Amino acid sequence: MTGTPFPIDPVLTGVALAHKNAAMVADRVLPFASAPIDKSEFKWNKFDFDEAITVDSDGRVGRKSAPDEVEYGMTEATASTEDFGFDDLVPIDDVTNAPKGFDPLSFATEMLTDRVLLVREKRVAGMVFDPATYPAANKLTLSGTSQWSDPDSDPAAAIGDAADSMVTRPNCMVIGRGGWSKLRRHPKLLKATSISGTDQGALSLAQAQDALEIPEIIVGEGWINLQRRGQAPVRQRVWGNHAALFYRAPSIAPNGRVMTFGWTQAFGTRVAGQIPEPKNGLRGSIRVRSGHSVKELISAPEAGFLFTDVA
Q1: Which end of the chain has fewer CB atoms within 10 angstroms, the N or the C?
Q2: Are 272 and 103 in contact (CB under 8 A)?
Q3: Is pTM, for the whole model, over 0.90?
Q4: Which pLDDT does position 75 carry in this prediction?
Q5: How far apart, in whole angstroms, are the C-alpha atoms of residue 271 and residue 278?
Q6: Of 2, 82, 88, which Cα lies nearest the Cα of 273?
Q7: What is the pLDDT of residues 226-255, one digit of tens each?
């Protein structure tokens, strides 16, 4: 093996770790395990609810017999984290001529970290809003008068019936901004929650959570450009026009032994670093890198319910 690893810079890593983008909600939908792991490969548990509630006997134990053995409805699987990161070249001239108080290397790290978080957001939204993620009974495509943009639809009934059908009561709902804007202005929801009975206005998150009996509604705000750099931009909401109910456990161990819809395992922490690039720019450049090693998992598909095309 030749060469040396890309040098990690503790200052830039601190910038990457501290950086947050309020528009990104992936960490609330598929939260990180309570601790990172120290090796890329790890074992995790996938839940099978039917196995967990299968009763083969009444549990009686004879005076000299052994109790029946049971399984806990989990299948152990092996996965590995994947590396995600981006580079930026910062000319030495930019560093030399930077105004007082502005650090081009820290700025580059923040922008790269934003990009890393955006592609994670896209991955998580793709998994959570993929119909293949869910059992056949846990997904519903809305159309016409059943869409929440139609005043004749009944979103409270649709969400309530879906929640009642799930193996565990959902405590979260993630919904794209377009769907949320229609849902919060739905006349039937407004009428049901208004003292005066008006069907005008818009519900707050707290009002909608109370009316729908969903403790936390997460609104996906982020945008993504679908075109390559240099082409005319085509903007699209990362979370699209869908909604998902799911159960999220309060805390998740690194092996995922608690029942939760999905989670994320990290290998180490976010990292950032710099390395000289003398061939780029008249006075050379500095290559800045930011990234992380993670794996997103759906561990209990039956603890989720998908609504496609909600508005």
Answers
A1: N
A2: no
A3: no
A4: 85
A5: 23
A6: 88
A7: 888 888 888 899 999 999 999 999 999 888
Q: Two tokens at 88?
A: 């930026």
Q: Which residues of the chain have pLDDT under 70?
A: 1-4, 49-59, 65-73
| Nearest to 304, CA basis, from 47, 51, 119 | 47
Q: State the residue for tokens 């000289």.
A: 276
Cα(214)–Cα(171) distance, rounded to whole angstroms? 5
